[in-house]
Specification:
Largest sheet: none
Strand content: under 5%
Radius of gyration: 40 Å
Order of helices and strands: HHHHHHHHHHHH
Number of helices: 12
Helix content: 55-70%
Shape: globular
GO cellular component, one term: endoplasmic reticulum membrane
GO molecular function: sphingosine-1-phosphate phosphatase activity
Distance between the termini: 145 Å
Subcellular location: Endoplasmic reticulum membrane; Nucleus inner membrane
Mean pLDDT: 79
Membrane topology: Multi-pass membrane protein
Protein name: Polyisoprenoid diphosphate/phosphate phosphohydrolase PLPP6
Amino acid sequence: MPSPKARGNGSRHEFMSLSRTNSPQQLQRQGSDPTSARMRASESPTRQRGSGSGSLTSGQALPEEDCIRLNPSFVGIALSSLLAVDLWLSKRLGVCAWEDSSWGSIRPLMKLIEVSGHGIPWIAGTVYCLWKSDSAAAQEVLLNLLLALLLDILLVGIVKALVRRRRPAHNRMDMFATFSVDRYSFPSGHATRAAMGARFLLTHLVLAAPVRVLILLWAAMVGLSRVMLGRHNVTDVAFGFLMGYMQYGLVEALWVSPASLRGILG
């Protein structure tokens, strides 16, 4: 006959074994555990075969628009940096863009320089001098200067229409005699005209040294005034100077002599 102590030990073992078995509530909690569910799903070949076609496998690439470019090109970084520096420097140099700017008191002087580099005074003055001139050599130079000014307006208008860069945000749209493409900023037409006109005058006119220096200073002031008035960014003026300098080479290549003009007119 087993002792009460032995019976107690047996009942204790039975109780412990019952406590180790999972109750329905424990089984339900284990089934609702996300980690356990994922492990069972990954171990189940049926679930793997039945996965939808919308899920991406390890060998399937993401769409290009969803990918993050972790290694942008050096050219893209350089252009973005140049643009940021250009906008920052242009805004810092726009010291007389408005009357209440830091250098707003010299705004009338800058606007006078702006008018001196405008296409209308240049074309009107060239036509007047051509009409009053009675020298064949002077007429030849003035005629080609007139053609060069018209070519400059055409080329600048084409580039502005193609690039379509807006003028700086701090610009005040009170410019003298603007046209449709003048709402765009790149390149600066004043800078192209100043560079080409200065090179043209220095090449075809016999001028004293002080006058030559004044012409160069005038061209530089025209470009500087565009930035100080907030009309253009620095890169607009820099490219305008380069474009105007190169345009003169095209003018020389297309130079019209009186003989060739008479042949064209018949």
